[in-house]
Amino acid sequence: MPSDNRIGPPLFGSERETLRACLDYHRATLAMKCEGLSDEELRRRSMPPSTLSLLGLVRHMAEVERAWFRRVFQDDDAPMVWSDRVDFQAAYDADASTRSEAFTAWEAEVENSRRIEREASSLDRAGHQPRWGEDVSLRIVMLHVLLEYARHNGHADFLREGVDGTVGA
């Protein structure tokens, strides 16, 4: 069983502290689901014809972080990491990927997202979501990314169990 070093959200905290902590908890959950596995195990697909794997999820979440923080608040023309167009599915195909490649990209995007959030004066900071063609608040961006992690960490539970039988948290 991977070590559980996650820090849960505060039981009494501000909206921002709670959102930040929940997002970091889910980021740590994805990392924990990948802990101790080889590149080959991280690339193991769920079932044909799906390309879904733990490494694919890490790559996908790098794209999500980029699309929802970098592209909304910094540069709406920033290219995606694994696609020359905004194609979130491309990241799932991790057949030629390595832990190093995927985690380096993901960790860089997470750090950039954290910096954007820290530097914002409030959750009402507005950015432009180019895919929607609309302005959005930092609050909705954090909620959207949190929901993406929660959804995909459910997939990570099943993928990890399929690799080595590890279940739980």
List the SSEs and their pairings:
Elements: H1 15-34, H2 39-43, H3 54-73, H4 99-119, E1 126-129, E2 134-137, H5 138-164
Antiparallel strand pairs: 1-2
Helix pairs in contact: 1-3, 1-5, 3-4, 3-5
Tally of individual domains: 1
CATH topology: Four Helix Bundle (Hemerythrin (Met), subunit A)
CATH superfamily: dinb family like domain
User: Span between N and C termini?
Assistant: 10 Å
What proportion of the residues is helical, as a percent range? Answer: 55-70%
How would you spell out the order of helices and strands? Answer: HHHHEEH
CA-atom Rg in angstroms: 16 Å
Q: What is the level 1 CATH name?
A: Mainly Alpha
Low-confidence stretches: none
Explain how this protein is built.
It is a single chain. With 169 residues, the chain is mainly alpha-helical. The chain has a single domain (19-164), classed as Up-down Bundle (Four Helix Bundle (Hemerythrin (Met), subunit A)), CATH 1.20.120. Helix content is 55%, strand content 5%. The chain has five helices and two strands; from the N terminus they run ααααββα. It has helices at 15-34, 39-43, 54-73, 99-119, 138-164; strands spanning 126-129, 134-137. A two-stranded antiparallel ribbon has the order 1-2. A hairpin with a 4-residue loop joins β1 (126-129) and β2. α1 (15-34) runs parallel beside α5 and α3 packs parallel to α4. It is globular. It starts with 14 loop residues before the first helix and ends in a 5-residue tail after the last helix.
